[in-house]
Amino acid sequence: MTDSPERLAAPVVFIGGGNMARSLVGGLIARGVDASKIRVVDPNAGTRDALARDFGIDVHAEAADAVDGAATWVLATKPQVLRGVCESLAPTAQATRPLVLSIAAGITATQLERWLGGDVAVVRTMPNTPALLGAGVTGLFANAHVDAVGRARAQALLESAGATVWVDDEARMDAVTGTSGSGPAYVFLLAEAMEDAAIAQGLPADDARTLVVQTVLGAARMLAESGEAPAELRRRVTSPGGTTQAAIETFEAGGLRALVGDAIANATRRGGELSAAND
Ligand SMILES: NC(=O)C1=CN([C@@H]2O[C@H](COP(=O)(O)OP(=O)(O)OC[C@H]3O[C@@H](n4cnc5c(N)ncnc54)[C@H](OP(=O)(O)O)[C@@H]3O)[C@@H](O)[C@H]2O)C=CC1
Ligand SMILES: O=C(O)[C@@H]1CCC=N1
């Protein structure tokens, strides 16, 4: 099944032009999507100007103007304002039946469909910021109104941001959010801590930055490209009685695994809270 020529030619409109929309737009442009096919709505003039300048896309202050003729909407505001955004667009959604993608943490496809007036094709997604480099990963869940064409269109859009993983059970989307949506921040926190520790051990700040960045990059590439499990790659670094063993024993004694488990559980729980608090 393929998209109709009209829908393929129609623009994609992002409602909300903040950090994550910028990452996704950057991914689309880097993939060669025509800038004239991308619109962004944001209330902030500075945000709009920066997006127009950096990507040459069409920017709007009002969603009502931007959604005109758009076959795909990407809801990219904070979860806390999404109900109001959807309710104000419900008449247009009912009249034009767009494919609606959401990137909001926690907010369910059922809530979005209800706020948009019912019977709307909704794909709830959870991308992450490496989308800006085409190196992201996105979890996707489609409601019952999304047909094969809609799924393919959502997948094509998010593939510009990197890998995609479809989730059959929406209840798992909060776990996706806690793992990969928030996940880049966990890696950045580790990098911050490693940098601080390297400086504390006497390394100049510039050198500490280079050593940490290249270590994270190299380790990520080995994870992605070797096909080996993380535990096996770790084992190969860890010489018996050597330096790595001294560090790993410190992490294990400090409860790193349980801490990571608690952190992802709390992020997952927070997704459910965002849904309930903003209904
Ligand atoms: N940041 C991330 O890593 C990820 C974020 N997400 C999700 O993406 C969404 C956006 O997050 P993020 O980009 O970080 O947030 P930002 O605050 O950076 O972006 C949201 C933007 O939407 C604007 N906005 C507010 N109200 C409206 C409106 N009525 N119409 C259009 N735009 C509006 C905001 O303006 P103002 O600032 O004035 O309110 C802001 O510029 C969230 O739902 C989040 O859960 C998903 C995956 C990863
Ligand atoms: O922190 C948040 O709520 C958003 C969702 C995933 C990443 N950032």
The mean pLDDT is 96
What's the number of structural domains? 2
Q: Percent of residues in beta strands?
A: 5-15%
Count the DSSP helices: 13
How helical, in percent, are the residues?
Answer: 55-70%
The count of DSSP E runs of length 2 or more, i.e. the number of strands, is 8
- The assigned structural class equals alpha/beta
**What characteristic shape results from the CA principal axes?**
elongated
CATH superfamily of the largest domain: NAD(P)-binding Rossmann-like Domain
Could you give the order of the helices and strands?
A: HEHEHEHEHEHEEHEHHHHHH
Contiguous low-pLDDT stretches (5 residues minimum) are none
Using the CA coordinates, give the radius of gyration. Answer: 21 Å
Regarding quaternary structure, what we see is: single chain
- Please tell me the CATH architecture of the largest domain by its name: 3-Layer(aba) Sandwich
Widest sheet: strand ordering: 3-2-1-4-5-6-7-8
Quickly name the level 1 CATH class of the largest domain: Alpha Beta
Under CATH, the topology of the largest domain is which?
Rossmann fold
Q: What is the first-to-last residue Cα distance?
A: 35 Å
The largest sheet is:
8 strands, mixed
Bound ions, cofactors and other small molecules, one mention each: NADPH dihydro-nicotinamide-adenine-dinucleotide phosphate, (2S)-3,4-dihydro-2H-pyrrole-2-carboxylic acid
Provide an overview of this structure.
The protein has 279 residues and is of the alpha/beta class. The protein has 2 domains: 5-173, Rossmann fold (3-Layer(aba) Sandwich); 183-274, Orthogonal Bundle (ProC C-terminal domain-like fold). It contains 13 helices and 8 strands. The chain has helices spanning 5-9, 19-30, 45-55, 63-66, 79-96, 109-115, 148-159, 173-181, 183-200, 205-226, 230-237, 243-253, 256-277, and strands at residues 12-15, 38-41, 58-60, 72-75, 99-102, 121-126, 136-142, 162-166. The chain has an 8-stranded mixed beta sheet, with helices on both faces. Helix 8 crosses helix 13 (256-277) and helix 9 packs across helix 10. The longest helix has 22 residues, at 205-226. It binds NADPH dihydro-nicotinamide-adenine-dinucleotide phosphate (NDP) and (2S)-3,4-dihydro-2H-pyrrole-2-carboxylic acid. (2S)-3,4-dihydro-2H-pyrrole-2-carboxylic acid (A1CAB) binds next to helix 8.
